[in-house]
Amino acid sequence: MNERSVRVRVPATSANLGPGFDALGIACTIYNEMTLTLTPEPGLNIVARGEGAAYIPTDARNIVWKSIQYLLQRADCMDEFRGAKIRMSNRIPLSRGLGSSATAIVAGLTAANAIVGNPFSRHDLLQLATDIEGHPDNVAPAIYGGFTVNTVTDNYVECFSFLPRILIHFVVMVPDFYLSTKSARQVLPSEVPMKDAIFNISHASMLTAALARGSERHLENAFEDALHQNYRAPLIPGMFDVFAAAKKAGAYGAVLSGAGPCLIAFVPEHRNCTEEVAAAMRKAFRAHDVDARPLHLHLDTKGARILRRKDSLVRG
Ligand code: HSE
């Protein structure tokens, strides 16, 4: 058996979208790329470049490599491929709430699946990725693209992906500090009042319906949340002030992106106010001594895909 290579591109994601904690997500137009070569000989050679490269383990602890092994085991190909060369070109900010760990998992699974002849469907990959990540709201949009609604029933994951009927520009503010998902989950209570659960079910449903049908007026309050953002606010100085500034400058709403610390504002394309929203959010952060830089993104509609050589944006 010879060595085999593929190159894969995976989009960033923003999970929760306010009320859809652990359930809703979107794919965004900023990408990590990876070239994977599986070899019959044992040995691991990982090189990471770009965002957060210095913090990415290049040994057996690497999450891409763990995901590759997870897939090879299930495909019964562990004996065929014992080693790997992994070249990562990263543009997605690390540990900031833009799904960089989900991207790594999805890149590993998608690339390994392609090399062994695609025995697993996209839905199978979603199940495997959720097993690894623990919740589906980042891995699902990374795999499918679009706006995704995700459920887990007795460990069985389902994803409904669609393209909203409203053109929305995402202004993502990236603060100059990291926050691990683990610490942002530790501050959450294990139980919540029934009224907060009802609040989120109704708002997440409204958000999904408004985007699916293209009803702008129903987005007015649809990004509100009672399940996680209040508890996480102390970890992100000025969070609610930044949300208010974004809305005042013309956004439908703004929320914590995933577990943070990035904040994401949803801005109607037709209002032509994306620069104003970014400036207002930055100023509000600054008032709390936080430096943040904006990313201007749109919805990725394709999700993870294998690249042909000519498609590649960056060289690994
Ligand atoms: N739903 C997750 C959270 C996303 O908010 O903790 C981060 O992985």
TrEMBL record:
<keyword id="KW-0791">Threonine biosynthesis</keyword>
<dbReference type="InterPro" id="IPR006204">
    <property type="entry name" value="GHMP_kinase_N_dom"/>
</dbReference>
<comment type="function">
    <text>Catalyzes the ATP-dependent phosphorylation of L-homoserine to L-homoserine phosphate.</text>
</comment>
<dbReference type="Pfam" id="PF08544">
    <property type="entry name" value="GHMP_kinases_C"/>
</dbReference>
<comment type="similarity">
    <text>Belongs to the GHMP kinase family. Homoserine kinase subfamily.</text>
</comment>
<dbReference type="InterPro" id="IPR020568">
    <property type="entry name" value="Ribosomal_Su5_D2-typ_SF"/>
</dbReference>
<keyword id="KW-0808">Transferase</keyword>
<dbReference type="InterPro" id="IPR013750">
    <property type="entry name" value="GHMP_kinase_C_dom"/>
</dbReference>
<keyword id="KW-0963">Cytoplasm</keyword>
<keyword id="KW-0547">Nucleotide-binding</keyword>
<feature type="domain" description="GHMP kinase C-terminal">
    <location>
        <begin position="219"/>
        <end position="285"/>
    </location>
</feature>
<keyword id="KW-0067">ATP-binding</keyword>
<comment type="pathway">
    <text>Amino-acid biosynthesis; L-threonine biosynthesis; L-threonine from L-aspartate: step 4/5.</text>
</comment>
<dbReference type="InterPro" id="IPR014721">
    <property type="entry name" value="Ribsml_uS5_D2-typ_fold_subgr"/>
</dbReference>
<dbReference type="GO" id="GO:0016301">
    <property type="term" value="F:kinase activity"/>
</dbReference>
<keyword id="KW-0418">Kinase</keyword>
<protein>
    <recommendedName>
        <fullName>Homoserine kinase</fullName>
        <ecNumber>2.7.1.39</ecNumber>
    </recommendedName>
</protein>
<feature type="domain" description="GHMP kinase N-terminal">
    <location>
        <begin position="62"/>
        <end position="146"/>
    </location>
</feature>
<dbReference type="Pfam" id="PF00288">
    <property type="entry name" value="GHMP_kinases_N"/>
</dbReference>
<keyword id="KW-0028">Amino-acid biosynthesis</keyword>
<feature type="binding site">
    <location>
        <begin position="93"/>
        <end position="103"/>
    </location>
    <ligand>
        <name>ATP</name>
    </ligand>
</feature>
<dbReference type="InterPro" id="IPR000870">
    <property type="entry name" value="Homoserine_kinase"/>
</dbReference>
<dbReference type="InterPro" id="IPR036554">
    <property type="entry name" value="GHMP_kinase_C_sf"/>
</dbReference>
<dbReference type="InterPro" id="IPR006203">
    <property type="entry name" value="GHMP_knse_ATP-bd_CS"/>
</dbReference>
